Amino acid sequence: MAITRPEELVSPGGAFPGYAVPSRHVPKQLVRERQVASSLALQMALYYNAFYSALHAFIAILGIRYKMMAIGPGALGYYLMPLLFSVWAVVEIGRLLLGYAGNLRERVQHLAAFFFLTIFPQLFLVAASCVLQTPRWPLDSIAGGIQLAFLLFELVVGYFTVRRVIGIQTTRFRLDYQPAIPIVRPRRSTLHL
């Protein structure tokens, strides 16, 4: 479907509803004629990370429950492990939602928040939970390593996605709001005696 441009661009409504007001902005292109800025690689990583995060949370809850019974209430890990897991779980839900919505809707604000939540606190929390647990099991290291791999992959792909979305939205803004007739400014002439 091609977009036809009328002779005089008008926008209905405005200050006086019912009257056509001349507009100098070119009508926006249809959605299917625009370049898509979202990243398929980031979307796939977020999709699989959502399922793996649920599995990781289940493994972590069982491990923390068993470790708390084994080490007793006197140790530092007795209080630290549930606290780190709680912060990780709450932030992970928000981080995945921000990344999912920001990528699909091409929102720079959501993608930037997703990017920063991936760096801090998630990257540090997962690394700390892999290293700082007192009775360390191989399953903890494996599950944390997979989660770290997801985070690092999403960090790299998310960075390039944010840059691409910003570039495409800047181009769209310039095309949508560029004056229809270029303004020609007269040159200053200097008189030489």
Automatic annotation (TrEMBL):
Q: Where are its TM segments located? A: 45-64, 76-98, 110-135, 141-162
Q: How does it sit in the membrane?
A: Multi-pass membrane protein
Q: Give the record's GO biological process terms.
A: non-motile cilium assembly
Q: What name does this protein carry?
A: Transmembrane protein 17
Q: Which UniProt keywords apply?
A: Membrane, Transmembrane, Transmembrane helix
Q: Where is it predominantly found? A: membrane
This protein's record includes keyword Transmembrane: yes
List the subcellular locations: Membrane
Q: Which InterPro entries match?
A: Uncharacterised_TM-17
User: Which Pfam families does UniProt cross-reference here?
Assistant: Transmemb_17 (PF09799)
Instruction: One GO cellular component term, please give it.
Output: ciliary transition zone
Taxonomy-wise, where does this protein's organism fall, top ranks first? Eukaryota, Sar, Rhizaria, Endomyxa, Phytomyxea
